[in-house]
Amino acid sequence: MPKIMMAFPQGKHKVVTMSYDDGQTADIKLVEVFNKFGIRGTFHLNSGMLGTDGRISEKEVAELYGGHEVSAHTLTHPTIARCPKEQIIEEIFEYPNGSYSKTIIEMLPYLGVEYARTAQSTGQFAMPDDLLAWRPTCHHNSDLMNVAETFVNLNKTQYLYMLYVWGHSYEFDQDNNWSLIENFCEFIGNRLDIWYATNMEIVDYLKAFQNLKFAASCQFVYNPSALSVWLQVDNQIIEVRGGGQIHLK
Fold first, then answer.
1. How much is the pTM?
2. Where is the NodB homology domain (predicted)?
3. Which residues are paired to 221 by β-bridges?
């Protein structure tokens, strides 16, 4: 039986993803930095607050965040762990903040939510074990450059590594440290061994891998999804195209 492991697109084993909240106008500068160095981000917007209190307006969203992901961050940004279920449904369904509870997590799949990031960092590079309580690696103010250097130096291809950075773009104005994210993106960006993905692209890819149909002997595999999935098969990288079936040995 062949030894089979999931790889990221093009056979890579590292992924970088960025997660920024609240849709403040400082996102304009942050997106420029990301685009310059090939970084992909997910921007969590409060749909009921667009265009208010220094936030991006509704008409700016599509163009500004092109090539990135726009995600729900509740309607009006309440502390939803303190809200009744009825209000939670409205806040999530209408298009969370850092608060959550077991009840909220249990409700999310029924509201069409496929992942949810917490504000509790791990300091690690492991893949998430619970997409509905997805813990990032670090906030950008948590020794970011040393974290990035450690990540770049990881070289054991038997593992998958994820660097997940979160924060708020307005913090760079508040802390006067735009050079931090600029230096980070220049250092981590445009590397051939890293997949740069949005949060949802990672979720979709993990689910595409989980949906692969292997023969009992693992001699062949069928991919029922539209996405290609890359596998490491006995140290060889193989692409399983969407809708395709291939022999593995």
1. 0.85
2. 12-92
3. 214, 246
Alpha helices in 26-69 (DSSP H): 27-37, 61-64
What does the domain layout of the chain look like in residue ranges? 13-206
Segment (H or E) for 168: none
Helix or strand run (H / E) with residue 42? strand 41-45
For residue 231, the SS3 value is: strand
3-state secondary structure of 19: strand
DSSP-derived 3-state class of residue 12: coil
Q: Are 30 and 20 in contact (CB under 8 A)?
A: yes
- At 81-107, the pLDDT tens digits run 555 554 554 444 335 455 556 666 666
Using the CB atoms, write b or e for 27-44: b if 16+ within 10 Å. beebbebbbebebbbbbb
Give residue-wise pLDDT tens across range 218-235.
Answer: 999 999 999 999 999 998
Fold of the 13-206 domain: TIM Barrel (3.20.20)
Are the C-beta atoms of 140 and 119 separated by less than 8 Å? no
Helix (H, G, I), strand (E, B) or coil at 243: coil
